[in-house]
Write a structure and sequence with these properties.
This protein is an alpha/beta fold and 271 residues long. It has eleven helices and ten strands. It has helices at 11-14, 24-33, 53-63, 84-98, 122-140, 159-168, 180-185, 190-196, 225-234, 249-253, 255-267, and strands at 5-9, 38-42, 66-72, 105-109, 144-147, 174-176, 204-206, 208-209, 215-216, 241-244. Helix 6 links the parallel strand 5 (144-147) and strand 6. The termini are close together. Residues 29-266 form the Xylose isomerase-like TIM barrel domain.
Length: 271
């Protein structure tokens, strides 16, 4: 089994919106205090470090954290032809940022709101953006990965959507960040989906849902965490990072305490 490392995604705070009044340094402290080794941060939460990768690197070192990945999305959902150029400019900006952190990836979210027009036409547009971003990443030495979601009206929701996008995306240019919670909310066979596309896995987002698809604390829902770890560990390009992302009501009440609890849960799996 590969050496497992556990990181934390900052969306646990981002989902609070105006209820979170802190900044990136508060996130680093909470995540380090929670016992994590790494962080995945988003374009929304990077704050004052957005144009200061060297300063962010120093802050990470001080906190004892590694940048696992930088995640960003687009208002276009990567599904508008007229936005491809702008989306790729944004991709290059964050690829250049991530290039300052050895081993860090750039994660591109799927559409959380699909643009107007026939849904079937959107897959080729999204794939073009992902593939061209993958080419930019290759030139910069930064791996690119797609992160599907299960939010309302998303482009990559169920297994048929996954099959379709992976037909169009070049696996040598673009990897996959499977998100266990989103896969389960998409009513997919999680084990089969992970196994079928295991060669595309770069790292994993671990989170849980209950039987109704409501977000749950890790280990309190229906996610077979051990099976996920086993499949990922055997994946040829998995880098060892399990990134915990918590969106439950428990986390909304006390994000720092929730992510600390999840980190303790992972120790039960030897990670």
């Amino acid at each position: 089994m590969k050496d497992l490392k556990v990181g934390c995604q900052t969306f646990t705070w981002e989902m609070l919106g105006d209820r979170f009044a802190g900044g990136p340094d508060d996130l680093l402290k909470a995540i380090a205090d929670g016992g994590y080794a790494g962080i995945e941060i988003t374009d929304t939460m990077i704050g004052r470090y957005a144009d200061r990768p060297a300063e962010f690197a120093a802050a990470l070192r001080s906190a004892g954290l590694t940048l696992v990945s930088f995640a960003f999305g687009s208002k276009s959902g990567f599904t508008l032809i007229e936005s491809i150029g702008r989306d790729l400019e944004t991709a290059k900006r964050w690829i250049d940022f991530a290039a300052a952190f050895p081993g860090a990836l750039v994660s591109m979210g799927s559409a959380t709101v699909v643009s107007d027009g026939p849904r079937d036409d959107k897959f080729a547009i999204a794939a073009e953006v992902y593939n061209k971003a993958g080419e930019l990443g290759r030139k910069a030495g930064v791996d690119i990965a797609v992160h599907p979601s299960s939010h309302h009206n998303t482009l990559l929701f169920d297994r048929a959507d996954y099959d379709r996008i992976f037909e169009l995306v070049d696996p040598s240019l673009v990897g996959w960040v499977p998100d266990t919670g989103h896969i389960l909310r998409g009513h997919q066979d999680m084990i089969d989906t992970l196994t079928t596309y295991s060669d595309r896995i770069r790292y994993v987002h671990l989170k849980d849902v209950d039987a109704s698809g409501t977000w749950a604390m890790l280990g309190k829902g229906v996610c077979d965490t051990q099976a996920v770890i086993d499949i990922a560990s055997a994946a040829p390009r998995f880098n060892g990072w399990l990134v915990l992302e918590e969106e439950s009501e428990t986390a909304a009440g006390d994000p720092a305490a929730a992510v600390k609890t999840n980190r303790q849960t992972m120790r039960g799996y030897g990670a």
